Amino acid sequence: MRIPRRFLPPTHLLTALEASARTGSFTEAAKELDLTQSAVSRQIRNLEDQIGFELFVREHQTIRLTEAGAKYAYEVRLALRHIAAASMGLRANPRAKTLNVATVPALGNRWLVPRLKDFNKKHPDVTVNIYTRPEVFDFAEQAIDVAVHFGSADWMGCNGVELMDEAIVPMASPDLLAEGEFTVPADLLGHPLLVLSCRPDSWETWFTQTEVEFDFIHGPIFDQMEACAAAAVSGAGIALLPKFLFQRELNSGQLKVVFEDAMHSRLSYRAVWPVEKENNALRGQFVTWLVDELARR
């Protein structure tokens, strides 16, 4: 069905809206778009005239989105992201065999990306784009074909498969271990315990599992596993980390396992994809390859 042109504003008007809504200022949007403030203001007014409603409330020297404007700006932002992703994908692979994969940073950087060469050998006509996100992925916001994430199975509107569980053990640098006695798990309580914000109760669970009584856990909080591991390598504290992701540091001696008592998370690494991608052949090939690679881990 042909879309009426009056419902398809020019791209330059939509980018002016996106920048103005995101920055909350015509002036800042103008700087970003390399335009004058008056030009951006005029483009927003032209857009309002075309679609027939007000997007911004103008008050003295400030602007704020109307309720309708906020909803429209959100949808426009998603549409522009999809257009940009499609353009980049076509440029990367003109034959249009492109797969967009999202993953959590540590797994992507340390396990997935180093193994992509094998997938590329088996599927030389496919270009795999990798997007790392520390937070939960939203398939509606970005054109992602499959996500490899750590978490629960309840992704609404998605299918998926469990890849593996996660077993974490306490790791520390040799210098920190030389500072004291580490004969029983309770000895860890006398040292800084590094906490991952995405797994805030990991230490409590580990100590409970090893039957250690504790009052509270003290130590710095990190929002990404890579930073937490780097702090452990520097001697800043002890971290609960999965062996399979930090084998390099273990092999080099930068980190050592303090106790072999492994805690198995109730969450797991999973591959998930939108229901509408269920019959996507590229998605199927990639997930099959993932499962096979992990079986050899």
Automatic annotation (TrEMBL):
Keywords: DNA-binding, Transcription, Transcription regulation. One of its GO terms (biological process) is DNA-templated transcription. InterPro entries: LysR-type_TF_proteobact-type (IPR058163), LysR_HTH_N (IPR000847), LysR_subst-bd (IPR005119), WH-like_DNA-bd_sf (IPR036388), WH_DNA-bd_sf (IPR036390). Residues 9-66 form the HTH lysR-type domain. It comes from the Bacteria. It holds the Pfam family LysR_substrate. The keyword Cell wall biogenesis/degradation does not apply. GO terms for molecular function: DNA-binding transcription factor activity; sequence-specific DNA binding. PANTHER family: GLYCINE CLEAVAGE SYSTEM TRANSCRIPTIONAL ACTIVATOR, HTH-TYPE TRANSCRIPTIONAL REGULATOR. Belongs to the LysR transcriptional regulatory family. This is Glycine cleavage system transcriptional activator. The gene is gcvA9.
